[in-house]
Amino acid sequence: MNKIIDSILSRRSVRKFRDAQIDNEILTTLLNCGIHAPSAMNKQPWAVRVVQNNEILNKINQDFVDWAKGKQLQGSAARASETDFSVFHHSPTLIVIAADTENHYSKGDCGALAQNISLAAESMNIGTCVIGNVAAVINRSEYLKEILQIPDTYEVVFGIAIGYKNEEPASKPRDESRVIFIK
Predict the structure, then answer these.
(1) Roughly how many angstroms between the first and final C-alpha of the chain, as a whole number?
(2) pLDDT of 143-161, one tens digit each?
């Protein structure tokens, strides 16, 4: 099997990260892979922010915890009331991706960018987890949008928790019946 196919088939959402920060050269390579994603008419309708500042990471997490109170959330977000909860799983780096609201194709293009980052990370044995709940708090906070320099015509669509893996999750079942050949 080739390395690309191996990365696609072995990539998993990682929710346990080592404390060590990703090397800047590796992070730059991953971001470069991201911005080389295809985009409709090559508009590149994304704004990418890399957050490694603990104060900002803590603010995003606390805002999520406050927002989650009283809500019935799914997945790991359901544990938001737990003492050591982290919406981005204590990753040392959070990549925030915002889409141009004036571009009909921007969310799909941002998905391609995120997939490039995730697959490139997997090829380097670095863990990622796409976090949709990050958008719920950043888009509601003028303070966070200002700190992250999110343009007025953009909205955060998700974040990517990224760091050195501290787990190797098993594959979850895939529903092949969702693929239908039309001949």
Answers:
(1) 28
(2) 999 999 999 999 999 999 9
> Residue 163, Cα to own-chain centre: how many angstroms?
11
Tell me what the pLDDT averaged over the chain comes to. 95
Name which of 13, 23, 16, 143 is nearest 84 in CA terms.
16
Residue at token pair 């985009």: 39
Task: Encode pLDDT of 79-126 as tens digits.
Answer: 988 899 999 999 999 999 999 999 999 999 999 999 999 999 999 999
Interior/surface letters 32-62, b for 16+ CB within 10 angstroms, e for the rest? ebbeebebeeeebbbbbbbbeeeebbebbbe
Distance between CA 156 and CA 164 in Å, rounded? 24
Residue type, 68: A
Query: Which residue, among 178, 179, 36, 7, has the nearest Cα to 109 in the 3D structure?
Result: 36
- What type of residue is 70? G
The SS3 of residue 29 is helix
Q: According to the model, what pLDDT value does residue 17 have?
A: 97
Helices (H), 12-147: 24-35, 54-68, 106-123, 133-138, 142-147
What per-residue confidence (pLDDT) applies to 20?
A: 96
CATH 1.20.1250.20 is held by the domain 3-168: no
- Mean pLDDT in residue range 72-84: 88
